[in-house]
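Researcher: Quick one. two chains, 229 residues in total.
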Amino acid sequence: KQEVTQIPAALSVPEGENLVLNCSFTDSAIYNLQWFRQDPGKGLTSLLLIQSSQREQTSGRLNASLDKSSGRSTLYIAASQPGDSATYLCAVMTPWEGGGADGLTFGKGTHLIIQP
Amino acid sequence: DTAVSQTPKYLVTQMGNDKSIKCEQNLGHDTMYWYKQDSKKFLKIMFSYNNKELIINETVPNRFSPKSPDKAHLNLHINSLELGDSAVYFCASSQPPYGETQYFGPGTRLLVL
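Model:
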C-alpha cells in the first residue's frame, strides 16, 4: 500500500528566501507525482506534474524533482513571496492491481508561511 | 469557464438523512474521482470512475455511492449520514492513461449535525 510522507509539516521563513519541501513515497511503481497548492478554505491547484520517466519539471519560480528509485521528490521555491503562503501537497498516482489506477495518494502537506 | 464544478458548496444536514453532491467537468476527461478531506486536512481517494470501471477504496462505507449519468458528471450519494461523514469532499477529473494532471473542483463542505 502506497504511503506518502511530507517533511516538514510546517515551515515559516522570511520573504525572499529559497526553500525546499520534501516528499517521500514507499512504492516506487508510480505513474506520476504531482505537487498541489491549497489555500485555506479553497480547492487544490495543480503546480507541477512529473511523469515517472522524468527527473524534474519547472514552472516559473518552482522546480520539482523526482528520484523514483529512492522514492523522493522535492519542490524548490525560489525567491519566496508572501503570496506563496499556502499548504503544499505532494501526491502520487500508483497503478492499481486490477489495471488502471485508483486515484492519487496524498501526503499530509507542508503548511508554508512566508513572512513579509 | 470553470473546469470542474461542484454543488452545493456548503451542505448542513442532520444525522440519518440522505444527500447528494453533484460534480461536473467540462474538460472532456474520461476519468473522474471523489476524494474526502477530513478534519485534519488529510485527503484520501474514495472512488475512481470511468465509463469502463468503478474502483472503490476499500475503506469507503457502502453508504457512499457514485452515480454517473454521463461522462461529464459524477455525483456522490450518501445514505444515512453520520457525524463522521463531516468533511470536505472534492471531485476531480483527468484523462487516461493515468499519467495526466488531475483537476480538482472547489470542494463541498459537509457538516452533519
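DSSP finds no helices and eleven strands in chain A.
Researcher: Thanks, that's what I needed.
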